[in-house]
Design goal:
Layout: E1 27-32, E2 35-38, E3 42-46, H1 53-56, E4 59-70, E5 81-83, E6 86-94, E7 96-101, E8 106-110, E9 114-118, E10 123-128, H2 131-136, E11 138-148, E12 159-163, E13 169-172, E14 178-184, E15 186-187, E16 190-191, E17 200-208, E18 212-216, E19 224-229, E20 231-234, E21 239-242, E22 245-249, E23 254-259, E24 269-277, E25 285-287, E26 290-292, H3 295-306
Antiparallel strand pairs: 1-22, 2-3, 3-4, 4-11, 5-10, 6-9, 6-11, 7-8, 7-10, 9-12, 13-14, 14-17, 15-16, 17-24, 18-23, 19-22, 19-24, 20-21, 20-23, 25-26
Amino acid sequence: MPAISVDDLTVLRRLRTPGLGDRVRPVRQVVDAPSGYEGEGFPVRRAFAGVDLRDLDPFVHMDQMGEVDYAPGEPKGTPWHPHRGFETVTYIIDGTFDHHDSHGGGGTITDGDTQWMTAGSGLLHIEAPPEWLVTSGGLFHGIQLWVNLPREAKWNAPAYQDIRAKDVGLATSADAGALVRVIAGEVDGVAGPGSTFTPMSLVHASVEAGAQLELPWPVEYNALVYVLAGQGFVGVEKRPLRTGNLAVLGAGDFVSVAGDTRHDSRTPAFDVLVLGGRPINEPVAWAGPFVMNTRAEVQQAFEDFQKGRLGTIPSVHGAPTSLQEG
């Protein structure tokens, strides 16, 4: 995986291990993400399928995009689509994605970069591989996470955070056998660059075969572990996990994952996303691209979209656009 790496992990800060009175979080549920297709037809795994929204709060949805090796002409993206009431976090591990919106914003993310988009009051958005990648083909792999916004932030103006791979917080496990990339939040004093409305942490860890990673985790956060690649174990029970598995953890002070001693050459490490946050504990009304508090607010979002109030597609990217009241 070409997400940021470090040749010598011993130069990084080592995370503390559980002490007297600390509790490693147990495993409450393990689900296997079903496969599907998104946008114009790129393959995804629905990471949160089968998990109660109350166990995901403040998150509502996550797709693992790929891993797929496209032939020339095959790379695909999404058409223009609306969002309101939440944030999309797109983390590209391998490949390149362009993104544009109806306000003229946008950019390109690649190999370990993150595009953190606060949809807030609403906008139109498109994500697609650049033309050169469509022509050449190539490997594509990433995730998109939907983070709910609390009621008071759902009407904030849309905004972007452009997080580059070089800016993520880096640490290693006590045995120097795991690379920990902190994209948002904080782990044992190692902070990520992502700014969040609801306190949360998002970590991508690569755990070598046989290595053990203990992540200090705030007791008020929930905790989820999703396997991007490889095989290993999670929790005090050493529950086996493999690519596409999501583990929902119970209460405790530490998240514990370990790499299996058996790995093939294609997946030499146990790559996991560890994420969690302080639950918002508000009603969730979710339909398609809108995540609100009530059904009436969702219906209003659809009406606003249909009447052009969420913006218009620019004929030339970057050209000024204005919201129409319909």
